[in-house]
């Protein structure tokens, strides 16, 4: 980022010190950019993407299984299950008469 403020230095030593600091900050920023580029390359690797997708599917399958089991434990699930069974019985009864 470019600063628009001007600074006056009393000695060349102060100026050289500030220049050294800015050069070091610039080198640090360049290294951060290199690391970020490398990280992006690793993340966009096809093997890495496939691995992430597979682990995501596995996690979602586990969550679905847990949610299904928890829902089955709730009394509401039993009530809903009974209503569905009653509706199926009514449909079967109606079919017999036709």
Characterize the structure shown.
The protein has one domain. The protein has helices spanning 12-43, 46-73, 75-97. 0% of the residues are buried. The termini are far apart. It is mainly alpha-helical. The chain is built from 3 helices and no strands. The model has no long low-confidence stretch (mean pLDDT 84).
Chart the SSEs and their pairings.
Blueprint: H1 12-43, H2 46-73, H3 75-97
Total tally of structural domains: 1
Report strand %. under 5%
**Number of helical regions:** 3
**How is the quaternary structure best described?**
single chain
Which structural category do the helix and sheet elements fall into?
Answer: mainly alpha
Helix content: over 70%
N-to-C CA distance: 82 Å
Helices and strands, in order, run as HHH
**Would you report the number of β strands?**
0
Average pLDDT, rounded to a whole number, is 84
Descriptors:
98 residues; 3 helices; mainly alpha; rod-shaped; 0% strand
Summarize the structure.
The protein is mainly α and 98 residues long. Helices cover 85% and strands 0% of the residues. It starts with 11 loop residues before the first helix and ends with a helix.
């Amino acid at each position: 980022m470019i600063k628009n403020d001007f600074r006056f230095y009393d000695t060349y030593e102060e100026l050289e010190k500030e220049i050294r600091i800015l050069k070091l900050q610039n080198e640090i920023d360049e290294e951060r950019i290199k690391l970020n580029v490398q990280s992006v390359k690793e993340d966009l690797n096809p093997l890495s993407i496939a691995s992430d997708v597979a682990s995501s599917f596995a996690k979602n399958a586990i969550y679905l299984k847990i949610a299904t089991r928890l829902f089955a434990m709730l009394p509401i699930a039993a009530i809903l299950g009974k209503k569905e069974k009653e509706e199926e019985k009514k449909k079967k009864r109606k079919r017999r008469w036709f």
